[in-house]
């Protein structure tokens, strides 16, 4: 019917259109050449509508995120609370040094005064600690040197004297000289240097004496040194030892072990280092080899005397069975 009226028709669906009509009322298509072309306008409208929906959706999502994000803020301070407490504790722990620091201000030139030794300076003894340290150091040094000296001395010296029984000393007379020629043997170990055991000398026997003193140790002992005190300087002695509990009757017995060489006593007090100090002996013998004689070979006295005999064990040694 539209075609019969001779009016315009829609190029899209063929529906009749009135003059001045820019789009089809049936399908909405625009008249060709019109600025309101149906499909393009609809597309633009659709795009704008979709954009509006997206904007509204984004706004709603942002608002919802803000509303949901707010409750998460309280845990943040809670997590930070231990850190704040730790910091406070640290500050409290380090508080004493700042308190001490004002007292150290007068001596701030010395960096070492920041050490814990500075508190004694509060009473006003600023220079005292330093001087005390110096004194202590020097004292320690002296003590060290003294200790070293003592150690050296103890290394080279022997222990305390061996205590002997009062009857430990006996006359050794293998030649069977008359007993009247000998004095009391206990006087040689009585601890008194003014008394002495003596043996009478015979000119006809010069320079041999042929007698001595034995010392009973009662148990096997290591002896490292003997001190001999005598008024008769110039006598020659030799020390022997035996492990037997009985004294060998002859000086030539194999049971006697030489513990020294022949020793010329040139001073009133003689120290004789003994050999075999690592071995233990039960009996010792102080054998008088020769009496004092002059340059011409004559006796210089009528008797030989031994005032005191002292025995010493090796340092740090003990008796052995």
Describe this protein's structure.
The structure is a single chain. With 321 residues, the chain is an alpha+beta fold. The chain is built from 5 helices and 13 strands. Strand 1 and strand 2 form a beta hairpin. The longest helix is centred in the N-terminal third of the chain and has 32 residues, at 38-69. It starts with a helix and ends in a 9-residue tail after the last strand.
Briefly characterize the structure.
The protein has 321 residues and is an alpha+beta fold. It has five helices and 13 strands. The strands form four sheets. Strands 3, 5, 7, 8, 9 and 11 form a six-stranded antiparallel sheet that branches. It has a three-stranded antiparallel sheet with strand order 10-6-13, with no helix packed on it.
Question: What is the distance, rounded to the nearest whole angstrom, between the alpha carbons of the first and last residues?
Answer: 154 Å
Based on DSSP secondary structure assignment, what is the total number of beta strands? 13
Total number of helical segments? 5
Shape: rod-shaped
Can you write the helix and strand succession as a string? HEEHHHHEEEEEEEEEEE
What structural category do the secondary elements indicate? alpha+beta
Mean pLDDT: 74
Helix content class: 25-40%
Beta content comes to 15-25%
Main β-sheet description = 6 strands, antiparallel
Enumerate the spans where pLDDT stays under 50 for 5 or more consecutive residues: 1-5, 78-94, 101-117, 122-156
Oligomer: single chain
Radius of gyration: 61 Å
């Amino acid at each position: 019917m539209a075609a019969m009226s001779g009016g315009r028709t829609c190029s899209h669906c063929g529906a009749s259109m009135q003059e001045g009509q820019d789009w089809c009322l049936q399908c909405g298509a625009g008249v060709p050449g019109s600025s309101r072309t149906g499909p393009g306008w609809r597309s633009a409208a659709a795009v704008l509508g979709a954009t509006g929906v997206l904007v509204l959706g984004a706004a709603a999502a942002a608002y919802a995120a803000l509303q949901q994000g707010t409750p998460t803020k309280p845990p943040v301070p809670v997590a930070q609370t231990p850190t704040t407490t730790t910091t406070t504790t640290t500050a409290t722990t380090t508080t004493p040094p700042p308190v001490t620091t004002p007292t150290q201000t007068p001596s701030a030139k010395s960096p070492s005064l920041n050490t814990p030794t500075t508190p004694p300076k509060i009473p006003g003894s600023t220079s005292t600690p330093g001087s005390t340290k110096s004194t202590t150091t020097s004292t320690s040094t002296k003590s060290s040197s003294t200790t070293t000296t003592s150690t050296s001395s103890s290394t080279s010296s022997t222990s305390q004297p061996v205590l002997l029984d009062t009857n430990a000393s006996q006359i050794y007379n293998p030649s069977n000289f008359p007993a009247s020629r000998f004095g009391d043997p206990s006087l040689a170990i009585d601890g008194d240097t003014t008394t002495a055991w003596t043996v009478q000398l015979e000119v006809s026997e010069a320079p041999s004496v042929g007698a001595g003193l034995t010392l009973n140790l009662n148990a096997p002992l290591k002896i490292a040194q003997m001190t001999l005190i005598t008024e008769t300087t110039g006598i020659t002695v030799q020390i022997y030892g035996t492990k037997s509990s009985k004294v060998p009757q002859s000086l030539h017995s194999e049971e006697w072990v030489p513990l020294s060489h022949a020793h010329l006593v040139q001073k009133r007090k003689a120290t004789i280092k003994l050999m075999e100090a690592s071995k233990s002996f039960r009996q010792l013998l102080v054998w008088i080899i020769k009496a004092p004689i002059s340059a011409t070979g004559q006796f210089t006295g009528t008797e030989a005397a031994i005032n005191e005999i002292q025995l010493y064990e090796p340092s740090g040694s003990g008796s052995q069975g």
